[in-house]
Design brief:
Homotrimer. It is an enzyme of class 2 (transferase). One of its GO terms (biological process) is riboflavin biosynthetic process. By secondary structure, the chain is an alpha+beta fold. It has two domains: about 80 residues, Elongation Factor Tu (Ef-tu), domain 3, CATH 2.40.30.20; about 90 residues, Beta Barrel (Elongation Factor Tu (Ef-tu), domain 3), CATH 2.40.30.20. A six-stranded antiparallel β-barrel has the order 1-2-5-4-3-6.
């Protein structure tokens, strides 16, 4: 589990194509300071398992399912990536519950700069729209954010200077893909509610 509070901005050292998969090596001195084989590190919001640690870099394998659902299929040497180690038991939960299981990708549509913050418009895939609500939580490239406004096909978030400076969201341009993970609680509520709603609908139809 993660919290969506990015620990550092790392960069891709190398990528390797594998049959139905890929292997990436990423530099990040903070997240590798105590990393070992088998640990989980979120890369742009995607939970990856550490295969090897060498100096201040780590290697991870990216399976086909992850390549299909996330923007990691397009990362290249030199790209900056958001990094976060798995949450430790007993630490403060600064963001919200993040699984590192990306639900899909969105596209940066526009950016509105203000004096002390920036509003970013992000395209919202139809299959995820029902899980996104105003003032709710969403993870964008691994960053825990609060939804400002939402419509059927897009939502907005407000980025403070720290987020702009210390994460990839400060560098994303219109047209860029970002990884999206909706609030897992919304998905569980839907799963539990559907049978009851169907039962009610059946009773009303009788």
């Amino acid at each position: 589990m993660f919290t969506g509070i990015v620990e550092e901005l790392g960069h891709v050292v190398a990528t390797e194509d594998l049959p139905d998969a890929a292997r990436i090596r990423i530099a990040g001195p903070i997240v590798t300071s105590d990393a070992k084989h088998g640990d989980s590190i979120a890369v742009n919001g995607v939970c990856l398992t550490v295969v090897e640690v060498e100096n201040d870099t780590f290697t991870a394998d990216v399976m086909r399912e992850t390549l299909v659902r996330s923007s990691l299929a397009k990362v290249a040497q030199g790209d900056r990536v958001n990094l976060e180690r798995a949450a430790a038991v007993g630490q403060r939960l600064g963001g919200h519950i993040v699984q590192g299981h990306v639900d899909g990708t969105g596209t940066i549509l526009a950016r509105e700069k203000a004096e002390h913050w920036e509003i970013v418009h992000i395209g919202l895939p139809p299959q995820l729209a029902r899980y996104v609500v105003e003032k709710g939580s969403i993870t964008v490239d691994g960053v825990s954010l609060t939804v400002v406004t939402v419509s059927e096909d897009q939502f907005t978030v407000s980025l403070i200077p720290t987020t702009l400076e210390l994460t990839t969201l400060g560098h994303r341009l219109p047209g860029d893909l970002v990884n999206l993970e909706v609030d897992v609680l919304a998905k569980y509520v839907e799963r539990l509610a559907i049978p009851h709603l169907r039962a009610i609908a059946g009773e009303e139809a009788q």
